[in-house]
Amino acid sequence: MSEATARFPAEWEPQSAVLIAWPTADTDWAARLAEVEDTYIALVAAITRFEPVLVCVSDADVEAYARARLSSARVEMGRVRFVELPYDDTWLRDTGPITLRNADGFDLLDFRFTGWGGKYGASRDDRLVEGLHATGLFPDGTRQPIDFALEGGAIETDGAGTLLTTWRCLSERHPGVSRAQLTERLSGWLAQDRVLWLDHGYLEGDDTDAHIDTLARFAAPDAIVFQACDDAGDSHHAELQEMAAELAALRTPDGAPYRLFPLPWARPIVDDGRRLAASYANFLIVNGAVLMPAYGDPADDRAAAVMQAAFPDREIVQVPCRPLIWQNGSLHCITMQLPAGSIRADLFDA
Question: What is the pTM of this model?
Answer without folding.
Answer: 0.97
